[in-house]
Amino acid sequence: MSDAAVPPVPHPVPPAPPPVPGRGTVPRPGPAGADDDAGAERDRVELRVHGVAGGQAEELLDVEPAMRVAGDGLAGFFRWRGPHDTETVPGVRREIFAWGNLTSGSSSRALWLLLLPFMLLNLAYWTRPGRVDRNPGGVRQMANHVYDGSVRLLALSLTVLITLAAAGIGMDLVAWQCTAQAETCVRARPWLAFLAAPASPLSAPGTALLLGALLPVAVVVVLWVLSRRTESEYEVIRGPVPPVTSDAAPLSRPGFWHNGEILARLRSAHIAMALGAVALLLLVPTLRHDLAARAVATGPGPAAWLVGAVLAVVLGAVMTASTASVAVPEGDTKWNARVDRVCRMLRDAVVAVGAGVAVYTVWPRPGWSASGRLPGDGAMLNALFTAQGLLVLVLLAASVVLYAADRAHDRTAMRGVAGPATAALGALLGGGFSAALVYQGSLWLSGCDPLAPNGSSCLEVEPPTAYSWLQLAFALEAVIALVVVAVIALELRRATRAHLPQVTEQYARSVRDRRTWEIARARAIGRMTEALPTVMAALLAPVAPLVVLALYSAFSGDVVAGPRSADAAVSGGIEGLARETVAVLVSLGAVLGGAALLGVAWIGRSAYRDRPTRQAVGALWDVGTFWPRVAHPLAPPSYAERAVPQLTARVARMARDGTDVVLSGHSQGSVLAAATVWQLPEDCVGRVALLTHGSPLDRLYARYFPAYFGPYAFADLRRRVSGWRNLWRVTDAIADPVRTMERSVDGPDVPGVIAPAEPLPDPRSYDPPPGEALRPEILGHSRYTEDPAYAESVWKVLNDTDDRHP
């Protein structure tokens, strides 16, 4: 049916509601304090929760003194705003919950770009395909524990990987390799004379290593402080009355948004492992020298190697225990408190052993000199990559078992492997950042040309060979990204043509009209979200050879020696051409990695100074940091841990005061609204209405987080509210209809859809409305509140509230 004659209304006033059976005619609501049919005062509130990158409160409330009644942002007609213009429905006051500053308010939030790999690992924990609404036994319970442990161990390995990258620059390249080439290093980098000059008292290998260790230790301390500070900033008081818990809705569990105990113990374990890795890099070359000196009866003393061996045993035991503590499943409060105390003790033990290692390292050793690469650095890196490859495979196996035996629902994305895919992407991104950081540091220190790294004027410093494989993967990712963009462009053109018949039928216009093609293209773009699994699978293509390489290193006994560089590993009849091609790709990957780091730095600098850029960066965190930090404690904090309890307390108070609340959520705000309803106590159930628009609840969250969202959870959500309507558009790349599934005892489960099942027309009309010379915009994901259907929906959910509370 055509909507060509429907003009857009800036602030629509809906018609009077129809009679309600059994109650007579319901009057139009007046201002707050007016009497209704029963003579009692009624208070009605429309509480809006904005989506990603929300603006200022005044802007969201739409209370500017002037309002546009025609035209657009370039040229329009304005008038003074009347009191009724600030209300969607007359007599219903409007409130806004503005939470955007939690992710994009402070300038320091721009630095969170560097924590993107950590965020992806944390997301992977929540994308499990198995159900969490019950406690299955046997294989399914084991698969859940394996899934949890694998993700957390991968997250731990990523923290160690970032630490090794900082140590690779400070300890390996500068403190070891540069001082090994003392005169050359001083000529190339005169400012390092205090460390590399033979006459300098700091040029001894032990002292230089300790100074070089300050860089990775500083990185660890910054992450530690940032995690503790954000935890205190986002901490809120738990409500006195717990919510109504339901097996179908895991987000209704008490304490879901209060995970301080788990966060604290995971943070202690991560800090212990990061500091332990630095201590190990100090200990290995020192103990290696003492063992060699013992064989020829020289060195600082006959017991020096024994002290180093004891430190190595104690450090290894503490790091092993810290690693194991990450995989310990959470339990009740007492259990979590005990594990937290153990993790704190292990962290303190690492600090104490690290202090002993520092003293042992700087002890005078006549005749000790640095040569080659830092002993232990390459071996630790190779072992870490091998462990990551094995953990990805274990995680994949656990996901397959959960999807086959205990899947939450049938619309799960990527057949249940979205979790392993997200974890692998995070690990690959973290490895790429690390490789780019170390490789660019080596190029800068040596003064080499990145496309000709073996020039005669170079200072010969070499990063570990394993990084060359990550640089090759980075270059392949760039090639794959170009191919993906080309394929998406072709698919978009095909999809646009496929939508043309529907557009011409709805608006009764010619297919030759440019406007018809614009609408069809907007609809095609709105449906392109369905290609996300395919795009993710394509971007993960380089992971497979990296995992094979790690497994080969593990089973061939080459973990210590590590793989050969990517170009040197090529063999066969076309070795010359193939090796040169791979070498160029590795160099290209190094350049792209450096460009990526510069891009991140530039975006961070721009976001620090410019609020719009900061909001754009914050939009990424609006989506990625909804979930609590239960896998990676050093990831950006979860804003929902503060937003949901705040919303719950406010809504519960209004409901108990007799206020009719319409909780209106747009985009990510609809997810916060749903989480709020699930956390309401029993005396507030059925006293709040829900209105979602542009909502990703079904299209994204139910598919990629099936254990926590889905048709059964949505059916539970509908039973908790007095009314629920969901507005969406075909042109919206985020929203979709919300599907429900009611469990039936006697027969099959009953499917349903939250009304309205049909999309809103977009645009509202094909031609300009009367009095206008401009055609209505295609809105897509924006400005739902200006659609006449929005005000109508507010009326309808208010009527549902009236039905329940006469």
Q: What topology does this entry show?
A:
Elements: E1 44-49, H1 57-61, E2 66-71, E3 76-80, E4 93-97, H2 101-104, H3 116-126, H4 138-180, H5 182-188, H6 193-196, H7 205-212, H8 214-233, H9 260-295, H10 304-326, H11 333-362, H12 377-406, H13 418-446, H14 466-507, H15 514-526, H16 532-539, H17 543-555, H18 575-609, H19 611-624, H20 640-656, E5 660-666, H21 668-678, E6 688-693, H22 697-704, H23 711-720, E7 724-727, E8 739-742, E9 750-753, H24 788-804
Parallel strand pairs: 1-4, 1-5, 5-6, 6-7
Antiparallel strand pairs: 2-3, 8-9
Helix pairs in contact: 3-4, 3-13, 4-7, 4-8, 4-9, 4-12, 4-13, 8-9, 9-10, 9-11, 10-11, 12-13, 12-17, 13-14, 13-16, 13-18, 14-15, 14-18, 18-19, 20-21
Helix content: 40-55%
What share of residues are in beta strands?
5-15%
Any idea what the shape is? globular
Number of strands: 9
Q: How many helices in DSSP terms?
A: 24
Estimated structural class: mainly alpha
Oligomer: single chain
Going by CATH, the architecture of the domain at 44-100 and 639-804 would be: 3-Layer(aba) Sandwich
Radius of gyration: 30 Å
Largest sheet: 5 strands, parallel
Mean of pLDDT = 82
Unreliable segments (pLDDT under 50, ≥5 consecutive)? Answer: 1-40, 802-806
CATH-derived topology of the domain at 44-100 and 639-804: Rossmann fold
Broad CATH class of the domain at 44-100 and 639-804: Alpha Beta
